[in-house]
Amino acid sequence: MEKLLSEIYSSEINFEISTFWDGGFTVKVGDEMNGFLEESAGLENLDKVCSELLRMVLKHYPDSVFTENYNKKGSSSNEEIKKD
């Protein structure tokens, strides 16, 4: 998880992860100043948070450094990104 978040952050992609007691986690890509592109709420655990964040970033930032690097790595390397 740390590696995934660090790589997205390093690519200058804004995102937000929040939680509210028993409501699960909420993930958003974008920011308050420029607007959020997508939001997913009620995620049950951090594995789902990472998977959803990854899906959103790949969808909304297809030309980003993160997506370019992600696509260059093999699927086994990509699983490591999600698990870390």
List the helices and strands and how they pair.
Elements: H1 2-10, E1 15-19, E2 25-31, E3 35-43, H2 46-60, H3 65-72, H4 75-83
Antiparallel strand pairs: 1-2, 2-3
Short description:
By secondary structure, the chain is an alpha+beta fold. 49% of the residues lie in helices and 25% in strands. It has one domain (2-75).
Structure commentary:
With 84 residues, the protein is of the alpha+beta class. It has one domain. Helix content is 49%, strand content 25%. It contains four helices and three strands; from the N terminus they run αβββααα. The model has no long low-confidence stretch (mean pLDDT 90).
SSE series: HEEEHHH
Main sheet attributes: strand count, strand direction, barrel closure: 3 strands, antiparallel
Secondary structure class reads alpha+beta
Query: Which residues form runs of ≥5 with pLDDT under 50?
Result: none
Described by the principal axes of the CA atoms, the overall outline is globular
Percent helix = 40-55%
Q: Could you give the count of β-strands?
A: 3
What is the CA–CA distance across the termini?
A: 4 Å
Give the percentage of residues in beta strands: 25-35%
Lateral arrangement of strands in the main beta sheet: 1-2-3
- The chain-level mean pLDDT equals 90
How many structural domains in the coordinates? 1
What count of helical segments does DSSP give? 4
Task: Give the C-alpha Rg.
Answer: 12 Å
